[in-house]
Write a structure and sequence with these properties.
alpha/beta; eight-stranded mixed β-sheet; five-stranded mixed β-sheet; 17% strand
Length: 563
């Protein structure tokens, strides 16, 4: 190829090695054509002006960079789509529940609640190998792990509440979104069955009804997925106080196979799954939840130490493991949305993360194997979630009320709102409902509606009347007819303010004909709802609280499983 043709194609070897410029004779000045045109009218000189070396370098540098960007973007987009495509997705809610999303606070912020589920499915070769219980192959999976994760509205604290899989609760009417099969509501069964009666969306509805907490999303993982994630993370520190071997014994068949010596260990893969599934060696399903909390806290600390975003190989492994292991509710079913969620979770410092277990007592129907929610302590946990009260005491709790004992209460929330003013108290019709039988095992407080009618009448709401229709509810609410619009909301807010009920408990409804106060199982006595709210960091001892910054926690091993 001639030098000229090389130049015409824009490729010059001088870009790749320095060469001295060739000596060229000076070009003659062009002769002026008649009329003074040096170009001779339409005549051209024999050679095009040569581009400078600098110009050629810029041209090729720009072209090369453009090609690299386009190529990388294409590969990145293809990989992004690959990750999106292997991420499982499903319907958010597939069961009956009247729990509504909490209103935003005065700053426009809303808390986020995510249900995290572990499936016990044995319907794949990998799960069958890891999970044991081969006789369940082909059965619909049950929920081996049920955790409710709460991210505060201001994104400054987070809590994870385990609901023991052996908890007896009512399960609502559910429809399996994959098959269309409908399941009738149950009076009271074990909560892990909800997953088999309509998928994760049925478990979500069951948890909403149990807690009165609106659940925004769900995420589910199976045995094989846990192993993949554990391997991708690369080792999580756990600790036992004695040698442990969770195996079959003469008294108890089964076991996870976990075998460790006393002290700290980094577990990965199958061993991590064994840790998370161990129950007999700890002594109960309640203590199994505690061991899971230790693992999760340690995992979060491990991920924070790893410089994931500068280690592309590690990041890719985590992305592959997560998307191939997880199934999520469809509204967060993309890599970007999961990434954004991860960034929100990452913003919470470890000492503002709290792990705890739903307080429970032995199930009267089967005290050896099952539990029911505690009538006293469980409602306190759910109230703290609904009212976005931190379970840790490391942050400064905002206050709206101080009890007689001087304890700072959690944020109740303003009952002032933009819009029309409320009508006069005497003109507002209020129906008051006794919903105090709303927890899983509660009984109504006799005369509760009548006591609140008296309190409202004393505050000027002389049209307040007791409603005789039972309406058990976990949470206290004030609802107003949707057709009444902003005026109805203003009237409802006035009723709420009279009893110190937070604004986020005021909701519109198409099922009421006037302002309706339902006193839930979280408000069994008194006429000032604000006094029922717990203080920040005041979770009951029965919740077995662990803070995310704890590094020295170790599990005690039940004597028959020591070696």
């Amino acid at each position: 190829m001639s030098d000229r043709s090389v130049r015409d194609f824009g490729w010059d070897e001088s870009l790749y090695e320095e060469q001295p410029p060739a000596a060229t004779p000076p070009r003659p000045e062009p002769q002026a054509a008649p009329g003074g045109d040096p170009g001779g009218g339409h005549r051209r000189t024999g050679r095009r002006p040569r581009r400078s070396r600098k110009h050629r370098i810029i041209r090729w540098t720009a072209l090369t960079v453009s090609l690299v960007i386009l190529g990388t973007a294409g590969a990145g987009w293809a990989y992004y789509q690959h990750l999106n495509n292997q991420l499982g997705k499903g319907e958010r809610a597939s069961g009956a529940s009247n729990v509504k999303k909490t209103k935003a606070n005065a700053a426009g912020q809303t808390a986020l609640n995510i249900l995290v589920l572990g499936s016990d499915s044995r319907n794949s070769a990998a799960n069958l190998k890891l999970g044991g219980a081969k006789y369940t192959q082909g059965d619909k999976p049950r929920a081996d792990v049920i955790m409710l994760m709460h991210l505060s509205a201001d994104r400054k604290n987070m809590s994870v509440i385990s609901i023991p899989r052996d908890t007896r609760v009512p399960i609502p009417t559910c429809t399996d979104p994959d098959t269309g099969q409908k399941y009738a509501a149950t009076g009271s069964v074990i909560i892990n069955e909800s997953l088999a009666r309509g998928g994760p969306g049925c478990t979500l509805a069951t948890v909403q009804n149990l807690t009165g907490v609106y659940v925004d999303h769900w995420m589910m993982i199976d045995f094989a997925g846990v192993v993949k994630m554990a391997d991708a993370i690369g080792g999580v520190d756990v600790c036992v106080n004695q040698n442990v071997w969770d195996r079959s014994t003469a008294a108890q068949h089964g076991g996870s196979g976990l075998k460790l010596t006393a002290g700290h260990h980094e577990v990965t893969g199958k061993q991590a799954l064994q840790w998370l599934r161990t129950r007999h060696a700890w002594g109960s399903d309640i203590l199994r939840a505690k061991a899971q909390h230790m693992y999760l806290n340690s995992m979060m600390r491990t991920l924070r130490k790893q410089n994931v975003f500068t280690d592309t190989g590690h990041l890719r492994n985590l992305a592959e493991a997560a998307t191939s292991s997880l199934k999520v509710s469809e509204e967060i079913g993309s890599i970007k949305k999961l990434y954004d969620l991860g960034m929100e979770l990452k913003s919470v410092p470890t000492d503002r993360v709290t792990m705890l277990t739903m307080p429970s007592v032995a199930d009267p129907q089967d005290p050896e194997a099952h539990v029911i929610p505690s009538k006293t302590d469980a409602p306190q946990i759910w109230s703290m979630l609904r009212n976005d009260i931190a379970f840790d005491a490391n942050g400064k709790a905002k206050t709206s009320k101080t009890s007689k004992a001087g304890q700072t209460k959690g944020t109740v929330g303003s009952t002032a709102s933009a819009g029309p003013s409320a009508a006069s108290a005497a003109s507002i019709a209020v129906h008051v409902v006794n919903g105090t039988a709303g927890d899983a095992n509660g009984s109504p407080v006799n005369g509760r509606a009548g006591d609140l009618v008296k309190a409202l009448s004393g505050a000027g709401f002389t049209q307040a009347v007791k409603d005789t229709t039972p309406q058990p509810a976990e949470a206290t609410t004030v609802t107003y007819p949707a057709a009444d619009g902003d005026q109805g909301r203003a009237n409802a807010l006035a009723v709420a303010k009279a009893l110190n009920i937070p604004e986020n408990s005021v909701k519109k409804s198409s099922h009421v004909s006037s302002v309706t106060l339902v006193a839930g199982s979280d408000w069994r006595d008194g006429t000032d709802y604000g006094k029922t709210l717990p203080s920040a960091g005041s979770a009951p001892d029965s919740a077995d609280v662990i803070n995310g910054s704890e590094t020295g926690a170790c599990m005690d091993v039940y004597a028959p499983y020591r070696w």
